């Protein structure tokens, strides 16, 4: 196997279109432009240390480089980008995911399914205050030695842009469905009350987040009435689970790939392209659907009860 060729192919796959591979190698490996191009032309091989650095910083699979079959390797990936002080490799991760959404959203058979016990990221990332609150929660746990109060937290523009792009791109998927736990808004309110109680979020900021919660509820209500995203006219179905949902699972599929996600650490997910993993996630979501009630263009009483309960919580 040509390890050098495979490594370069994987690097090219994850790089944003407007970012040159030579620049990435220079930044990551602290080498000159000439040295970067010599590696690209295979005049100088990558050292083991350089391969290890590239694999670590950009999530490149050493198994793939070694030619190990996917089913004999670990089927999951967990990428943990930084959201407060992102570095180049973090920006690559944001843009790589947006590029992935770009590619799959234009495919006519792409389908998205989500089962969640919280307001899904693909929805809240369209609302600035709730996005900031989730980033605040993330840093509360992830940066627990240097916690920034909500009012002092500054969300980098590149993170804001990435989050908003997720919100817009997901509406381009031809068919989506969401299965909500009936207590998704109550959970946010309890978190707001807790952080307000320990003086990490001010009353006026609590009210700003609640304003976003009301806006999201109106957004969800419109989706349940029309069954379509207003901007793209693509189909979206919303269900309410009759059972408590213990974790958040999702998938994206089309004829070319199966992609499954298990939510972790507030803003990230364990992901897999492996077919057996997808099958298990798919079966789990289908089982959850059997204990859920569709409230999109149906079951008006259940829809009104769900929406009214969320308003009471807010």
Can you characterise this structure?
The protein has two domains: 3-71; 77-313, Endonuclease, Chain A, CATH 3.30.870. By secondary structure, it is of the alpha+beta class. It starts with a helix and ends with a helix. A hairpin with a 3-residue loop joins strand 6 and strand 7. It is 52% helix and 14% strand. It contains 13 helices and eight strands. The chain has helices at 3-14, 21-29, 33-40, 48-58, 62-66, 88-105, 121-124, 128-142, 157-170, 184-197, 203-226, 275-289, 300-313; strands at 77-78, 111-116, 175-180, 235-241, 249-254, 257-264, 268-272, 292-294. The protein is globular. Helix 2 (21-29) packs across helix 3 (33-40) and helix 11 runs antiparallel to helix 13 (300-313). The protein has an eight-stranded mixed beta sheet with strand order 1-7-6-5-2-3-4-8, sandwiched between helices. Residues 68-73 have low confidence and may be disordered.
Tally of domains: 2
Shape assignment: globular
- Taking Cα atoms only, what radius of gyration do you get, to the nearest Å? 21 Å
The averaged pLDDT comes out at 88
The secondary structure category is alpha+beta
Largest sheet report: 8 strands, mixed
Portion in strands: 5-15%
CATH architecture of the largest domain: 2-Layer Sandwich
**Please, how many helices?**
13
Low-confidence stretches: 68-73
CATH topology of the largest domain: Endonuclease, Chain A
Following the backbone from N to C, one meets helices and strands in this order, namely HHHHHEHEHHHEHHEEEEHEH
Q: Quick one: CATH class of the largest domain?
A: Alpha Beta
Report strand order across the widest sheet: 1-7-6-5-2-3-4-8
């Amino acid at each position: 196997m040509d390890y050098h060729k495979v490594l370069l192919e994987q690097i090219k796959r994850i790089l944003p279109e407007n970012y040159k591979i030579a620049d990435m190698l220079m930044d990551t490996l602290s080498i000159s432009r000439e040295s970067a191009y010599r590696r690209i032309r295979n005049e100088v091989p990558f050292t083991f240390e350089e391969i290890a650095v590239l694999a670590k910083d950009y999530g490149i699979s050493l198994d793939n480089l070694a030619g190990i079959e996917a089913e004999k390797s670990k089927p999951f990936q967990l990428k943990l980008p930084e959201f407060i002080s992102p570095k180049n490799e973090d920006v690559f991760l944001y843009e790589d995911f947006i590029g992935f959404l770009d590619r799959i959203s234009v495919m006519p058979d792409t389908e998205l399914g989500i089962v969640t016990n919280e307001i899904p990221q693909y929805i809240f990332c369209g609302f600035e205050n709730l996005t900031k609150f989730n980033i605040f929660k993330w840093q509360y746990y992830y940066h627990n030695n240097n916690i920034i109060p909500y009012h002092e937290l500054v969300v980098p523009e590149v993170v804001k842009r990435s989050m908003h792009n997720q919100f817009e791109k997901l509406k381009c998927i031809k068919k989506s469905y969401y299965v909500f736990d009936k207590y998704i808004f109550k959970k946010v309110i309890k978190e707001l009350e807790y952080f307000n109680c320990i003086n990490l979020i001010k009353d006026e900021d609590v009210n700003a987040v609640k304003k976003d919660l009301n806006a999201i509820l109106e957004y969800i209500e419109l989706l349940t009435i029309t069954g379509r995203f207003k901007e793209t006219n693509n189909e979206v179905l919303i269900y309410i689970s009759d059972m408590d949902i213990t974790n958040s699972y999702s998938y994206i599929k089309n004829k070319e790939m199966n992609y499954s996600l298990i939510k972790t650490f507030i803003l990230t997910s364990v992901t897999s392209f492996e077919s057996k993993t997808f099958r298990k996630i798919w079966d789990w979501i289908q089982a959850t659907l059997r204990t859920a009630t569709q409230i999109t263009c149906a079951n008006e009483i259940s829809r009104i009860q769900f929406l009214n309960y969320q308003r009471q919580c807010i």
